[in-house]
C-alpha cells in the first residue's frame, strides 16, 4: 500500500495512506470525518473510466493512517479537558 511521510511526532513518522490511479488531469478527493479514502471508490472509478487521474488520501486519524488510534485518543482528551 502506498504511504507518504508528512512529518514526525514523538520521534515516529507520520505516514498517510493514499490511492493514486490512472493518468491524465488529476482530481483529488478528500473525505470528512469519520470516513476514509475508500468512501470515494465509486466516484474515483467513474472518473478513472473517463480518463482522469484520481487521488484520495486518508486524513490523519482516519482509515489506514499509521497512528489513527493515537490521534483519536488525543482528540478525545481535548474534548474532555
Span between termini: 36 Å
Structural class: alpha+beta
Tell me, rounded to a whole number, the average pLDDT: 75
Note the run of SSEs as H and E: EEEHEH
Q: Please, how many helices?
A: 2
Number of DSSP E strands = 4
Low-pLDDT segments: 71-81
**What portion of residues belong to β-strands?**
25-35%
Overall, the morphology is elongated
The strand line-up of the biggest sheet is 1-2-4-3
Radius of gyration: 15 Å
Count of all domains: 1
* Main sheet overview: 4 strands, mixed
What portion of residues is helical?
Answer: 25-40%
Reconstruct the topology from this structure.
Blueprint lengths: L2 E7 L2 E10 L4 E5 L10 H9 L3 E5 L10 H12 L2
Parallel strand pairs: 3-4
Antiparallel strand pairs: 1-2, 2-4
Describe the protein in words:
There is one protein chain. With 81 residues, the chain is an alpha+beta fold. The chain has one domain (3-79). The chain contains 2 helices and 4 strands; from the N terminus they run βββαβα. It has helices at residues 41-49, 68-79, and strands at 3-9, 12-21, 26-30, 53-57. Strands 1-2-4-3 form a 4-stranded mixed β-sheet, with helices on one face. β3, α1 (41-49) and β4 (53-57) form a beta-alpha-beta unit. The chain is elongated. The termini are far apart.
Amino acid at each position: 500500500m502506498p504511504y507518504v511521510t508528512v512529518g514526525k511526532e514523538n520521534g515516529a513518522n507520520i505516514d498517510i495512506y493514499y490511492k493514486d490511479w490512472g493518468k491524465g488531469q488529476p482530481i483529488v478527493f478528500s473525505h470528512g470525518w469519520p470516513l476514509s479514502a475508500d468512501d470515494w471508490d465509486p466516484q474515483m472509478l467513474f472518473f478513472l473510466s473517463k480518463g482522469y487521474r484520481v487521488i484520495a488520501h486518508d486524513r490523519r486519524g482516519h482509515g489506514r493512517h499509521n497512528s489513527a488510534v493515537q490521534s483519536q485518543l488525543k482528540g478525545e482528551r481535548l474534548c474532555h479537558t
